[in-house]
Every structure is written in C-alpha cells, then in structure tokens.
Design brief:
By secondary structure, this protein is an alpha/beta fold. A hairpin with a 5-residue loop joins β1 and β2.
Length: about 950
Amino acid sequence: MHSSSSTTSLLITLGRLALLSPDGSEEESLRKRRRKIAVLAVLALERRPLSRDVLVEMFWGDQEETRARHSLSDALSHLRRVLGRDAISVGRSEVALARDAPLAVDAADFAAAVQRQDYDGALAMYGGAFLDGVYVGGSTRLEHWVERQRARLHELFLKACREECAKLERAGRLEQCAAVAGRWLDVEPLSEDAALHRLKALAAPGTPDAILAARDEYQRLRARLEREFQLAPGARVIALGTDLGARVVARPAAPAPVAPTEPPVAEPHVSVPVPASRPTALEPPRRRWRPHLVVPVVAILIAVTAALGRLVDRREPRVPLSANTIAVIPFAVRGGTDIDYLAHGMVDLLSTNFDGAGSLRVVDPRALLTESSKTDSASLTTLAGARTLASRFGAALFVLGDVVVAGDRLRITAALYDQHRGTSALARGTVEGRSADIFALVDELTRRLLAGYPDQTPDRLTGLAAHTTTSLPALKAYLEGVSHYRAARYEAALAAFERAAAGDSTFALAHYQLSNTALWAAQGGWDSVINTSRRAVRYATRLTRRARLLVEAYEAFRTGRLDRAEAQYRYLIANYPDEVEGWYQLGDLLYHGNPPRGRSFAESREAFEHVLALEPEHRGAMLHLMRIAMWERRVNEVDSLIQELLPRTQPPEVAELEAERAFIHRDTAAQRAAVARLRDAPDEVVRVAAMRVALYARDLDGADRISRLLLEPKRAPEYRAVGHLHLADLAVARGRWREALEHVDSVAPIVPVIALESRARILTLPFVGAPRELLQATHDTLERWDGTAPTTTFPIFAVFNGLHEHLRVYYLALLRVRLGDLEGAEHAARRLGTLRGAAGAAEWEARELARGLSESVRGHVLAARGEHEAALEKLERGRLTISEGLLDSPVGSQALERYVRGEVLRALGRTAEARRWHGSLGQTAIDQVDFVHALPH
C-alpha cells in the first residue's frame, strides 16, 4: 500500500515509530534510538530545509549548546549511514531530506491516499495516531509540532471514515461499513454520525440476532460516553437506541421464566445457535479444579453452602444499607438442567473475586443462598427481587446476571447496580467462550464490572484502571491502594500499588499512583519516584488520551522540566476542565516549582481551589491551601482548613497540624502543648513541623524550639544532624553565623561530608561577614578532599549520592569569588561542566547539575565584575532541570542564585523583577530563611 520499492526504506509514524529496511525488517541500529528516528520524521514530513538551530531546539533544547549541536550532527550522520549519504542534504546552517531519498513515509502515503479519494487504501495504511505512545525528550516546540501533525492526520482519518462509510452504505456492504464505523468510533466516540452508521449497519439484516447485536452495541456506546466523558449520546442516536430496545423487547419470550411486569436485567444472547434438542452437558472447566471433578465439586460446594447457611443467624429484614457492601444474586441459567449449579456457583465465584477489591465487602454467599432459597427463583431475575434480597443484608450494591449455554459455549452477562442510583447500572459486562474457560471468563467479567466501582475520585482514574489491566489481582490491589491513599494511609497504599505493578508490569496507572504515593510515604527515594513515573509513560498506550496527557505531564514534572509540565497541565485542564488530578498536579507543580522560577508558590491557590470545587474532601488540596493561608496570614482560613483536615489525618501527623495552628495564632499555651506532643512524634513529623513553622508562621523562635526536639538521644543520628542543620539556618537568619558554624560542627561526627558542604554553603552567602582566613581555610579543606563520599539511604542526604564532587567544585568556585579569585572561579566553572557523577547518581541528573552549576558560577563571576546584563544571561542559562528531591535541596533550589539575580536586577533599576525573585525566597525549604533577613524591605 505504501509507495516503496525493493530499495526503499519505510518510516512508520502512525501508531508507533520505526524505520523498516527495504526487506521489511526493522532497522536494528535505530530500534532504541527514537530521537534519531524522530529527527528523520520531522525532515520527512516537513519536506523543506530546516535550520540547525530549529532542530537543536526541538530535540536537545534541554542540553548545553555545544553538546546539543554535537548530538544533532551525530544523529544526521547515523541517518545518512542508514539511508545513503545523499539522502540527507547537510549544509552549514540548514538540513533537508533529499527529494529523491529512498524513503517512504506512512503518514505521507496515507495523506496522499486521502487526497486522491482512495479512502479504503488510506484506512488500510492508518495504524493509529501519529507517534502514538512515543515520547521523545526535547522541548515544547517538538511537542507542539507533534500535536499539529497528529491533529492534521487525525482529521484526514475521520474524513476517510466518513466518506468510506457513506460509500459502503450505498453499495449495501453493511458488514464492512460497521467495521469502518467501529474504527471511527474508537478515535471519535462523540461522533453521532459514526454511531448511526455503525448501529444501522449492525441492525440492517433485520434478524433478531442483528437487532440484539445493535442494541447491545448502543448500550456499550452509551456506557462509554458516560464513563469517559460524562455525556449522553446525541438525540438521533438515543432515538435509534430506543427503537432497537423496543424491537428487542418485542421478540418472543425466551424459555427461561421471566416476571411479566419487569424484564430481565440483560437479555441473554450467544453468537452460536441454541440447538433445538437438549444441549450436551457443560464441558467441565480445566483451570484450578480437576476436569472430571468440576460438576460434582461445584454441586458439593452448593450443598455444603446451603447446609452451612442454615447455621447462619437470620438477618433482620431492614438493615441500613452500606455503600461498600455488595451482594451477588443467584444467576438465571438457560441451556439444560445439568448446568443449573451455575445459578449458585456464580455467587461463590464472583463473591470471591469482589471481596477485598478496594473497600468492597461481599455478603457471605452461604447466608445469601440460604435466604434466596426462601424466595421464588423467578423473582430474583428482576431488579425488584434482587434489590429486596440485597437489602436484607444491607448491601447497597448488587450484581444481577444470567448464563446461557449452547454446546460447549458459554455466555455470561451481568450488571452492577447501586440501590442509591435508581435502575441504571453502574457497569455491565458480557463474556463468551468455551465452558472449560469458566474461571478466566469470570475473572474478565469481574474486571469489567469493577469499571463501575463507585468508590472512586472524580478524576475517574479508578474506573479507567479496570479497562487498562487484564489482571484481576492487579486491579484489586490497585483499588485497595486507592482506598488507603484517600484515607491518608500512605504506607499501606504504597504496598498495595507495588502489588498492582508487580501483578501487571504494564499497568500504567499502577506505576503512576506508585510514584505519587511514594512522595507522600517518603519511601523509596527520588530515583524510585522518577523511574516509576517513566514506566507509567512507557505503558501509557493503553490509556485514554486524557489519562495519557496526565501521565506524561507528571513525568515531566518529576524530572524537573517545569515549564513543559506546566504547559502540559494547562493544556489538559483547558480541554478537560473537570480533571481533578490535572488541577491538583498543576497546583503541586506551581507550589514546589514556582520559587526556583522566580514566582510565588501562592500562585497555586487557584488550582487547589478548583480541586476542592470538584472534590470537596481532597486532603492534598486542603493541606496546600492551609500552608498558603499561613503564609498569607489568613488565620481564619487556616483554622477552617485544619478543622477539615484533622479527621482526615493519621494520628502521628495530627501533632504537626496542631503545632502549625498554635504558632500561627501566637498562642503561647497552645504552643507549649504542641511542642510537648511533638516530643513523642516521629522524627520526620518533627522535622516538617519545624520547617513549616519557620516558613509559614515565620516564627524563628518556634522553629528553634521544635528543631531542638530532634537533638534528643532517642532520635535517629541522621535526624539529629538535620536538627543541627535547622538550628544553623535559623541562627544565620538571626545574623548569628558563628553560632551556625557551631551547629554545623556538631553534624561532623554523624555525616562529615554534609557538615563540610554546609559550612561552605554558609560561608559563601554574600551577607555572612566571615573573615578572609576562615574562607581560605574552608577552601583549602575542600581542595584537599577528593569529592568521594559513601552513599546513604537517608532521603534528605541521598539526593546527593554520587554528586558530591559537583558540590565540592561548586563551593570551591563560590569561595574563590568571595576571595576575589575570579580566574580561579572560572577555571572551576569549566571543571564543573565536565563532571558526570559517581555511583548512586542518575546520569541525566548528574549531567544537568554539572551544566547548570557551571553556568551559574559564570553568572556569579560576571556579577562580581559588575557585568550585570551578562550575569543575568548566565544565571538564566544556569536554571536547573532536576528531580524535585534535589530541587528542594540548598543547591538544587538555587536560592543563592535567585538572591544574586535579585541584587543584579536592583542594580539595573529593574526593581519589580528584583522583588519577584527576592519574593520567591523563603517559601519551600528552611535553608531559605537564611536570606529573609538580608532581603531589602
């Protein structure tokens, strides 16, 4: 179908990204080099000369310029080796794909087919969305280019579907029309025309089976629109669906007994004809039980269940309904008396599967079957009868369904209902297969019904999860994790999400939630947070476009590409304004990522307020808004939010909230009580409380009192070191730098490397008036040290694993600036740019830290020389793209660079900009209180 020959390679961009050699095999040298193939895709689809600067910015915009240009040259050389030297024209400033290059491009061939109205051929070429699921790092410029191409090709695909459906319908080729309309609906589920084409084509034969198939398709479409978009079908589609439903009801009654006043939940149907004679016995399942024992064992199970049920106390007829209790009603069964055991067997199988899924609890099958035996079996196939039976056990949720057997084929249909939500099902599911595969079929049916699980946040990720994993155990673990997460039981949530990810390694949402929960649980380290976020992106092809945008933006956020992540989140919420998780993560990004960009963390208020408008009990949004309210001295708002938070907070963290309230109110009695409670709190709770009292209550004395709790002998040694570092920063903020160095000396016996780096950090502050001999002595100590240090698992210090040589050279450079040795500082800057990191460091982060610190040092040198404009340029180029863990550290937050930038702007008379950069200090980390007293007021 593609314009290729025996000497032409084929570039696949629709649905994936790959370069196929002329023999049809994938080009091995480029299989894992997506960025290089993506460069080829840009050249091939643009079909015009592009400047090197444009390509560098698109693909290596986050790298140092020299390295970026080298990477482009390397990519072009590699592509010319594969396609031929003349395939790509490489000039000094421009690059282009030659017009006669031996390369076909599926996207170009597809577009050409649509242009010449070969819609059938075009649809055969369309393998999926342009670069679907393909992530290539670079810049927002590349992302925007991909989005434009994707949108253009998407519209061409829709045009091809519309035209081809109309042509097939006119020609009476209805089966092909239904197939094309199905593809159309897959990519544009809101299209009324696509739905009408498909439903009419399915129903066109006019047979009972055709009408039923069209009716079932309408119900699936309606359920999808409600689940994914919270919308109903268009008026014309609803009218057709209603007509189909009426035609189904008008069919002759099935042999199974049905209550005359209320139709069954879902009329059974199998795609194989039911024989007129009695069908053969149900082929026994082969999984879990021995084949020749299945029927006897199930029969014995039912008998034992009934016998044991007599021992269960009879429940009162009126029991308060529990929103998380589910009853599985005995199924209606048709196809022969020898499979009647499935009526009760489905109760046991589904109950076992549902139990423990999130906060779901099942009614004991023994008790339910005993109670159901007292009721006419025909009435249990109706909603009214099922509701009555479920109510006797306090179950707000219930499952109603049926089984049809024909030969060795089995069709199971079921629906999940909530008594609080009327007669509309939360979810429906139909599975069909060999009777021997009954257990696998029941697992799949359970997974489909869990898509309607009601205990989910408004972001609807819980419902989506059921559609993006094929593993029922993984889904159950995921739902359990969601329940724990929403109750702030973060360690239990982390363990559950870990089981979900282990149960299905391609379960993107499990990886996403695992990464997010690791932050709250403060476990696993930042490498784990980032790696799991990247795995979520890797397996995001199963997700809806909406969820995929969310996962990709989150990964950009956690890897420090803050501008890109913000643009992605804003694009997401602009298109999906009810996306709770998108609003929350945007708020989190603005809260933590604004200060390093010279913006206030208070800009996140609007995003968090949107979260609460959509989900009023969202604990994370409340916490962030409470801290912003503290910063803005909105005392009444602080009180209100803490009152909401207390019942949603686990006991160890209650002491932190009470301390923050006591210190914002300046209530000395409450402060004493809060400090006393913190004395018994976990080390991390005490650390966080001290930091937030210092930053948000702006009570340095209060933070001092709390920090001293960390010095007690019962505390872990690392936390004692943290306590001394807190006290050192608080001393600097009071102008007592000598006292600060005494606290740093107390850290040395515990973590000597951190002590040395902390001493250097304090002495390099411009407003610390340390004598020259002390600066020189610290400089000489750093020069004698070789930069090696043992790795640690303690999270606060682990962010520096493998990066201590970076810090050593950086502080050497800053001390040389303070000592007036600007040439020596420039030499250190050059040395910084060559560093790559030792064991324990992520390669990308070590490289980025080296680049950013090298540029920053040059900015400090230029500022010392009075070259203010040049200094600003270097400081801007020195902005870091690093993980949030390192971003919160004294070096990663670049607090010193932000302070110096503000000073340079003041010297240039740009006071508004200076205030913005100075105002970003003191918002996210306790070491930034060092700068507060030095800021101009």
